[in-house]
Specification:
The chain has about 150 residues and is mainly alpha-helical. Helix content is about 50%, strand content about 5%. The chain has a two-stranded antiparallel ribbon with strand order 1-4. Strands 2-3 form a two-stranded antiparallel sheet. Strand 2 (about 10) and strand 3 (about 15) form a beta hairpin. The termini are close together.
């Protein structure tokens, strides 16, 4: 359902009427987390496989003395809807470099690591990230953008 009011639902269940930097940043992190949890099959070519069970080479392998590879749970339909809405927000950022900085921050990269990748200082990364958040906040609080509920 398309809503013209400036309301949005957060992953925690809270309803936001006025966007601030913390709310936008939380939605960007939620978007990145949803993308990490989406399971996509068929991206890699099928390798050699067998329907036979793995052969146990050692005693310790048989009884779980090794680390468990835990897969994250798949995202919910509401999380995917929020992700689709949030992905549009990157178009509100004018500079492509600032988009990449905001995207890297959403995925949890540190300022110093982003600075090495982009070729700028940590202070410049922080300033550009803050400017990118402000650009998104300005468009969202303007009320001219229709969002899904």
């Amino acid at each position: 359902m398309i809503a013209t009011a400036n309301k949005a639902h957060m992953p925690s269940g809270a309803v936001i009427e006025f966007w601030d930097a913390a709310a936008v940043e939380a939605r960007l992190v939620d978007c990145a987390d949803t993308i990490k949890r989406v399971r996509m099959r068929g991206l890699w070519p099928a390798m050699y496989g067998s329907s036979w069970p793995d052969i146990i080479q050692e005693f310790w392998d048989a009884f779980g003395w090794h680390d468990v590879d835990v897969q994250p749970s798949p995202p919910t339909a509401a999380a995917i809807t929020r992700m689709d809405e949030t992905m549009v927000w990157f178009l509100y950022i004018k500079q492509p470099r600032d988009r990449r900085i905001a995207w890297a921050k959403a995925f949890g990269l540190s300022d110093s690591k982003i600075a090495r990748i982009v070729g700028r200082s940590r202070w410049t990364i922080r300033r550009r990230y803050k400017g990118a958040l402000e650009a998104i906040i300005q468009v969202l609080n303007d009320g001219s953008v229709t969002r899904q509920k």
